[in-house]
Amino acid sequence: MAPRGGAGRRRHRPRLRGVLLAHHEPAGLGGLRVGAAGRLRRWVPPRAARPAGGPAAHLPGPARRGVPGCRADRYRPGAGPVTGDRPSAADPVTVDVVVVGSGLAGLAAATDLVAAGRRVQVVEALDRVGGRTVSHHRYGQALDAGGAYVGTRHTRVRDLAARFGLTLTPTAAAGATLVDLGAGPLRSDGTRPAFNALAVGDLLDRLDDLAATVPPADPGAAPGAAGWDRLTVAAWAARTLTHPDARLLLDLLVRQMLAADPAEVGLLHLLFYLASGGGTHYLTAFAGGAQQDRFTGGAQSLADRMAAALPRPVRLGTPVTDLYPDQSGTGTGRGLVRVVGPGLVVRCAQVVVAVPPGPATRIRLRLPGVSPPPGPPRTRGAAVKLHLVYERPFWTDAGLSGWVTAGTGPLRYVVDDSAGRDGLGVLVGFVTGPDARQYAALSAAARRAAVLDRLAGWFGPAARTPLALLDRDWQAEPTVEGCYAAVPEPGWWTTEGPPWSPAAPDRPVTTVGPVHWAGTERSPLFYGHLEGAVRSGQEAARRILAAGPPAPRRDAR
Ligand SMILES: Cc1cc2nc3c(=O)[nH]c(=O)nc-3n(C[C@H](O)[C@H](O)[C@H](O)COP(=O)(O)OP(=O)(O)OC[C@H]3O[C@@H](n4cnc5c(N)ncnc54)[C@H](O)[C@@H]3O)c2cc1C
């Protein structure tokens, strides 16, 4: 084994401590920071152009350089126990399982495999763990720039949180919410816009009734699947919903839940998502619903703790590029896989590829009989998440909860993530779908003006002077490609999906030979949620363990 902290070791340096956004933001959407004088400073360098060729050419420059955000010293970017500066190493390190990706799916798989005695190496493209969970700490408060909320039914995430000593904070909002459908804000006592109650009830019942006919494990088997898959949600609404309030609410729901335009989403995908996640009421509810709690110390703390508990440090800053059959082994060394990336060669019996569907297609599979990974190949989800930090939650003075639902962009949703009424005020905003694409194209000044003008219109002039305004564009993440989760093109489910069916030989499966695909997009339950990610990782580990103990390796180290 290569010595830890050898010549190639790059120590983690918290060079951007206190800075929210990372280097992989695109040109035109860097991190924004409001200075003491209230002026907004741009501090994130624009995205570098992609150089041609090179071992990691499939990732943009900043991703190869590594993205800061890792806080634990035991992660060793670009070095560590795996060794090697020798992609052709004749005698690379051998483990039982390599897990590609250190999001919650990969870490859940690694945690279970290690608990069962397997030697596991996690390899991560970025210089931090957590994937779509990223927490930043400002003014003593954790700000979740990615996945944040944990629902009452998200039992696997809750179990892991308890196991790793983490606490959850309820997100319940008190006070009136605002609804702005274009003619200025209206107060509402519920969390949903005060629409025509009959139209709303009818819409939600219809959606839930249709979703109840969609088996999450095989959406294509639903009686109406063929027609629903190619029909967009927008087309279905125009055809079926007569009340304008029902159409408007459906539009808002799709933008909120899927971060996509209803004209881009197939009806079957929406119904599957509802069936997978627990239905309209559960998915849109905070108290008692899918947004019941958030991690007190930030959602990334779960990934940080899971990674820190692994015997082998996560190998950071190393995008896996290829899976090769191992040619060097003899006897018991035969049948192994070589997992290769820049400066990385590791040999293993099994591989868990716990990366989102888009990036997964860029890992070259050179193993005989292993087909390209299944999964929605293209995604239409697009999200920018913002945090505005204020000296206090001043909106509560007016009896407001901090919640806003807007019919026009850029900010479609605002929620209150303040720790309490006596501390700092934290508003979280979401820009989704086509709004996110337009927002990302604006200059920094124009983005700031657009956000603060909107908030001032809802909460008054005090909204114009945040201590900090931070935004993160998930469209630009080369290791994710679309958020919150992959939204397949209309027609995908009945032609190529689902991405997990183990039974049907003519369909893609999540395990082919020694390769197991995981990630929230491989989970029939709670697809797109933290819970789906954990379940998929645990399922990959279960399949590996069910296959029996690893063969003894005379070359094992
Ligand atoms: C803005 C936003 C808000 C969200 N809000 C919520 C919420 O409130 N509640 C909720 O339940 N869910 C939410 N989600 C969704 C949730 O965050 C994801 O479902 C979940 O984190 C996905 O975990 P994963 O492990 O499947 O994938 P990821 O977290 O994407 O992890 C994949 C990892 O693989 C790495 N990787 C990619 N390619 C390679 C490679 N070639 N080699 C090595 N490593 C590679 C990536 O860098 C990444 O670390 C949100 C997501 C976003 C973006």
TrEMBL record:
SUPFAM superfamilies: FAD-linked reductases, C-terminal domain, FAD/NAD(P)-binding domain. InterPro entries: Amino_oxidase (IPR002937), FAD/NAD-bd_sf (IPR036188), Flavin_amine_oxidase (IPR001613), Flavin_MAO (IPR050703). Keywords: Oxidoreductase. Residues 46-88 are annotated as: Disordered. Residues 46-66 have a biased composition (Low complexity). Its cofactor is FAD. Residues 104-545 form the Amine oxidase domain. Pfam families: Amino_oxidase. The keyword Ligase does not apply. It comes from the Bacteria. The keyword Transferase does not apply. Belongs to the flavin monoamine oxidase family. This is FAD-binding protein. It comes from Micromonospora fluostatini.
